[in-house]
Amino acid sequence: MSDSNHTGSTVKEFTILGFPGLQDQESKTILSVVFLAVYLLTVSGNLLIVVIFAVNESLHTPMYILICNLAILDISMISVTVPKMLTVFMFDSRLISFGACFTQMFFLLSLISAESFTLTVMAYDRYLAICHPLHYSNMTSNSLVKRHIVWCWAGGFLSVLIPVILAVRLPFCGPDQILHCFCDHVSVLRLACANIVINSVLGLTIALSVLLIPLTLILLSYVKIMRSALQISGAEGRAKAFSTCSSHLLVISVFFLTAVGVYISYRIPGTSADQRIMAAVFQNVFPPLMNPIIYCLRTKEIRDSLLKTLKKSRVFPKSM
């Protein structure tokens, strides 16, 4: 995404404005502290998931491979935007080069798409585990899940390639101020001195497809899971089936509800720029923050593996 890729542009760098209504020093200090804390908690929490998976061979199963991949996606996604946001809030370093801006945009959109695809694969894995428990080990394997993960990442990057390339090729001749905290696709398009109807329609179509098609497949999987779980004889069996899906359902809800929040914020009349930007930032930072918390609190195997790891490290006494 070098500067030589764009034609007819006089803009060599953009200025990230951040929140237009929160430009005083006190507000920027609060934002700096909040986002730094969120970033550190998110990275450490997801790294903890990765470490627990790496050191406990009992977790080397399809479901936990997918959870580990989700943690890596979350670390990557929040690391694309928050460090630059912190330089804006802390040091008033608002400039970002043309190439860096579109690189940030490309990776952010790609990782969001890859996470959406990953959640779909996770729902399918739960469908196999609950609806076909006797054949689960024959229908999936670690190597198969790893191939699915590769396809999720590849699909995420390929799905947004054309909209980003078309955006890079637009002429930008001023203004150069991005009304956002990072290089959001819609916010950058608005700065182009050319007709952006095709770019906007294509971007919206792909965004809705990346979210709605996986969501539809996830819902279909869980409809079948619910029907299968209700046919299990005994309350204990049904409770166990629902318990294995509860963490994933919470993660799905957080991811897709925050995405819906962003869409609604652009459609409600009278919504301020600060509110729209906050909705987009919330979508970027909240799911990666919550996912490790959800899995650590609600997944017994991860909790037990965490305690086992801490005992080995002598953080907790062995009597616990």
Structure in a nutshell:
With 320 residues, this protein is mostly helical. The chain has eleven helices and three strands, in the order βααβααααβααααα.
Report on this model:
A three-stranded mixed beta sheet has the order 2-1-3. The longest helix is centred in the middle third of the chain and has 34 residues, at 98-131. It contains eleven helices and three strands. It has 320 residues and is mainly alpha-helical. Mean pLDDT is 87; it is low at 1-6. The chain is globular, with a radius of gyration of 22 Å.
Task: Outline the biggest β-sheet.
Answer: 3 strands, mixed
Rounded to an integer in angstroms, the radius of gyration calculated over CA atoms is 22 Å
H/I helix tally: 11
Report the mean per-residue pLDDT as an integer: 87
- Gap between N and C termini, in Å? 53 Å
Q: What class would the helix/strand composition place it in?
A: mainly alpha
For the secondary structure, the number of strands is 3
Identify low-pLDDT runs.
1-6
Helix content: over 70%
Outline type? globular
The neighbouring-strand order within the major sheet is: 2-1-3
| Proportion of residues in β-strands | under 5%
Order of helices and strands: EHHEHHHHEHHHHH
